[in-house]
Amino acid sequence: MMGLFSGVLIAQATQRLTVLAVAPVAALMMRNMIMFLLLKARN
Prior knowledge:
Elements: H1 2-42
Transmembrane segments: 20-39
Keywords: Membrane, Transmembrane, Transmembrane helix
């Protein structure tokens, strides 16, 4: 029972770390895309 519980905790921690790692990259890509679209719309 304890093994299953710790496995779930590890899975949740890994998921959170993955989200923390991916979020800045996704935000940067979104910003680049918005800037690109704005520049394209201006020309």
